[in-house]
Q: What sequence folds into this?
C-alpha cells in the first residue's frame, strides 16, 4: 500500500510533489481518525484544539492568543469560541486591563470533557501505531525541517 494506490495516481511530477501530496493526504487521514475519536464529545477538532489551548494556558487568554496557538490557522477563532461558550465549555469575560478585549478561559464543564477525552489518549496515540517511537521522532524532525525558514 502507498499513496499511489490510495489516491489511484501513479505518476507525480517529482518526489517533492509526491511527498507533498502524501503529507496532505495523511494529514486529512489523521484528522478523520481524530474526528472519529472525539465525535462522542459532540465537538469538532478545532473546538478540541481550543479547549486544550485553554486548559494549557493556566488562565484567561484572548482570542488572538488562541489563534496564534491553533493548529489550524484558517479557523474562525471567535466563532469557534462562541460555540464553546454556548455549550458551556468555555467562558468569556471582559479583559480587566483593556475593556475592548475579552478574555477566554475553560469552564469546569470544559475541563471535565477534556478529562473524559484524556481517557482516549491511547486511541489517539494508536493513530500512529505503525511507527516505532524512533520513527515518530524522525518524522517530527523531518516535518520541522520542512517548515524551516
A:
Amino acid at each position: 500500500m502507498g499513496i499511489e494506490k490510495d489516491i489511484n495516481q501513479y505518476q507525480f511530477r517529482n518526489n517533492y510533489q509526491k511527498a507533498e501530496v502524501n503529507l496532505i493526504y495523511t494529514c486529512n487521514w489523521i484528522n478523520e481518525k481524530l474526528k472519529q475519536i472525539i465525535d462522542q464529545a459532540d465537538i469538532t477538532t478545532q473546538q478540541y484544539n481550543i479547549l486544550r489551548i485553554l486548559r494549557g494556558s493556566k488562565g484567561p487568554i484572548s482570542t488572538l492568543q488562541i489563534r496564534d496557538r491553533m493548529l489550524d490557522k484558517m479557523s474562525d477563532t471567535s466563532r469557534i469560541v462562541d460555540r464553546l461558550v454556548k455549550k458551556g465549555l468555555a467562558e468569556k469575560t471582559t479583559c480587566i486591563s483593556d475593556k475592548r478585549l475579552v478574555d477566554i478561559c475553560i469552564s469546569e464543564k470544559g475541563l471535565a470533557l477534556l478529562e473524559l477525552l484524556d481517557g482516549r489518549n491511547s486511541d489517539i496515540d494508536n493513530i500512529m501505531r505503525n511507527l516505532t517511537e524512533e520513527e515518530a521522532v524522525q518524522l517530527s524532525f523531518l516535518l520541522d525541517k520542512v517548515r524551516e525558514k
About this structure: Helices lie at 3-7, 15-38, 45-57, 63-69, 77-86, 108-118, 121-125, 133-146. The chain has a mean pLDDT of 92. Residues 33 and 103 are 32 Å apart (CA to CA).
